[in-house]
Amino acid sequence: MKATILGTGSALPEKIVSNDDIAQYVDTSDEWIRQRTGIVTRHIATSETATSLCEDAARNALENANVNPEDIDLIVVSTVSSEYRFPSCACILQERLGNKKAMTFDIVVGCAGCVYGLDIADSFIKSGKVKHALVVGVEIISKLVDWADRRTCVLFGDGAGAYVLGASEDDSVGIQGIMSRGLGENGMSLTMKDRPIDNPWHKEDDIKDYLYMDGQAVFKFACRKVPESIKEVLNPLGLTPDDIDKFFLHQANYRIIETVAKMMKQPLEKFPTNMDKVGNISAASVPRIMDEYNRQGLLKKGEKYILCGFGAGLTYATACVIWEKD
Ligand code: UT7
Questions:
Q1: Is the beta carbon of 295 within 6 A of some atom in ligand 1?
Q2: Mind listing the pLDDT tens digit for each residue in 58-112?
Q3: Which whole-number Å values give the CA distances from 55 to 69, 136, 206, in the listed order?
Q4: Catalytic residue at 54?
Q5: Does the beta carbon of 219 sit less than 6 angstroms from any atom of ligand 1?
Q6: What is the separation of C-alpha 60 from the centre of its chain, rounded to a whole number of angstroms?
Q7: Does the predicted model carry a pTM greater than 0.90?
Q8: Quick check: is 89 catalytic?
């Protein structure tokens, strides 16, 4: 038995913010952002919330998969920016979808979150415990960044992306191989602190913390671990990067994608990109770009895809999927 992707969905806030718009607030330029990252515009939440985008993406994916919300047995949401610490975004989504039976939880995995979520769903489906799973990545990173810090505020966008998965008796389709891993020893290169302790017996300084990233350290980690993890997934399948039709990588930086393509001796055309329009949307990144391709009819039955996310933790996750949908 294999777990297979039955549908994709995504949602973005309405407001589009250009590099020039940001340059009005911080010392940056359209030229720097384009050349160093490939990002031109991004969507930033104004009236939208993590839970509203999560619901929109999930509904799109369920419709695309032709699966009823009541039939979902597992809901995994990857987010670090829900408007609630609890209940989980997954529980809020379950209530909004009118689902009564799913196991529901959030995961804190940053940009690798949706591929991690696929790994979890894959295990539950293969164990026979779950028939249909919903995996959503959603982030409102715009509320975590310091809009006076040009090193981070220019990079991110807000959005949500979702997958609906089901069980398939046909082993020649679906998730063929998947791995997820943490690299905690490098975790402090991408951080954001929580509220400080404040009780009658102990009080820590209440410093407002924002997302911090050592960009170069994360860049190097991505360029090393992405090709390594792709090989780790492909080797046991007897496949090589030449056998892969498309590589859907996390859209953090165009230069990471160029480097990975070069290291794996693959043409850049096999690496879809959309960071020019949406920026780095973290956990929503991989499902969003796949959803764009899916809705344009660019995902073909029988084609082999690599899905790869990497980010906070540090964490990374890679899947090899044979597309089943017509
Ligand atoms: O999604 C999670 C995973 N995240 C990633 O994968 C991100 C990986 N890292 C990156 O994509 C890149 O490292 C960045 C895009 C974050 C930064 O690019 P970089 O080429 O590594 O730049 P840098 O940090 O080395 O900075 C180079 C210069 C610095 O100036 P000095 O010190 O050389 O004078 C920065 O102060 O560029 C300056 N700089 C900027 N200048 C204009 C940094 N940000 C900006 C900016 N506008 N927005």
A1: no
A2: 999 999 999 999 999 999 999 999 999 999 999 999 999 999 999 999 999 999 9
A3: 11, 9, 33
A4: no
A5: yes
A6: 16
A7: yes
A8: no
Strands 198-199 and 74-78: unpaired
Q: Whose CA is nearest to atom 42 of ligand 1?
A: 28
Name residue, tokens 């063929």.
176
**Residue with CA closest to ligand 1 atom 10:** 215
Among 46, 276, 81, which Cα is nearest to 160's? 81
Q: Tens digit of pLDDT for each residue in 7-45?
A: 999 999 999 999 999 999 999 999 999 999 999 999 999
Which atom of ligand 1 lies nearest, measured to the CA of 312?
A: 2
Does residue 87 have a cis bond before it (omega within 30 degrees)? yes
* Helices 113-127 and 285-295, axial angle in degrees (round to 10): 80
Active site residue 308: no
Cα dist from 239 to 85, 174, 226, 231, 232, whole Å:
42, 15, 16, 9, 10
Domains (range + CATH), the chain: 1-326 (3.40.47.10)
Tokens of 322: 């044979």
Is the C-beta atom of 111 inside 6 A of ligand 1? yes
